[in-house]
Amino acid sequence: MDICQNLQNGRVKLDNINENGDILTHKGCTIDAGELVWSVAIGSAVSEKIPRTCSINYHHVRSANLMLAIGLNNGRIKIWELDTNKLITELYDHKTVVRGLHFAPDGSLRLASASRDGTIKLWDMYDDGNMYKTLRPGCEWMYAARWSPDCQKIAGVGSARTVVVWDSNTYEVIRKFIGHHHNVVDVDFSPDGALLVTASYDTRAVVWDVYTGDVLLELCHLFPPPRPIYASGANGNHVRGAVFSHDGKHIATICDDGYLRIWTIEDELVPQQIATIPDALCVACSPTGSIVSVGTRDGTTSLFAFPRQVEPLQHLCRMALRTLTPSQSVDKLWLPLKVKEYVKYRCP
């Protein structure tokens, strides 16, 4: 597993770590981006189920490579080949800071970028980094973009309480989620794609039903929660990031109050674990879900372990079912009402 650290001097430090959290520094490297780094993402090129019409051999990308995308202060995105530590190309189209990056998890090397110019742009690295679509949600800034696990949806969050999900094939807006009172700065899908978690400056992380837009959980970082008129201003408890664990039962959040919190989707009142981490800016989860990494303003990255436990069979069955079944279809199943509510994440 590779982990990236944003450094204040425009460099990105890449370390190789194992799933126990041990950093193998002798296998690491530092990449000089030449500009203030705001976002990073790692993508892996694998064989696709549907063949491309273009010849991959013609382009810069070879199918076995790991790629590092670096979003810069000047609006450019630099793409590095990690096998050779070489700069492959630069992507030009954003007008200002690239605030968020995310590669599609299907290995297609499609990249989503969110910028303070108010747009999300989609890039195809198999086509020499061609920018093939611009999504405009209508807000001043965009903070983050995220592909769904099946790559059929793209979620974007930004200023003015913006939370939008698009269809990644038609690029039509599927749903706008209403409920935050301040800028929304981070977003993540659950592993089964049924839930969406968003982090906002209104002191909350909210868990949504992707298919209905209903609020399922409110993870409050200030008690009692401020009224909307106060939550929309400076409050000292801005939630900077939120990410699902691989098991789909835990959510890690970081907040300006200096704490990393680990929550379960079965209890929105009290976090399961808390760790002190001042000046946290971003949070990410390892592919297997056992490690959560937190980046801070001083350029360092701290690693923490997610709670480990044997998940009950009912939760594993729920995730398997929800991978293929929207919330509306669950209501049509011949199941007891209480089971339906559990499958829709509406009861523990």
Automatic annotation (TrEMBL):
Q: What is this protein called?
A: WD repeat and SOCS box-containing protein 1 isoform X4
Source organism superkingdom: Eukaryota
Q: Which UniProt keywords apply?
A: Repeat, Ubl conjugation pathway, WD repeat
- WD repeat residue intervals: 91-133, 177-218
The SOCS box domain, residue ranges? 303-348
What gene is behind this protein? LOC106165518
Query: What Gene Ontology terms for biological process does this UniProt record contain?
Result: intracellular signal transduction; protein polyubiquitination
What organism is this sequence from? Lingula anatina
> Which InterPro entries does UniProt cross-reference here?
SOCS_box, SOCS_box-like_dom_sf, WD40/YVTN_repeat-like_dom_sf, WD40_PAC1, WD40_repeat_CS, WD40_repeat_dom_sf, WD40_rpt, WSB_SOCS-box_domain
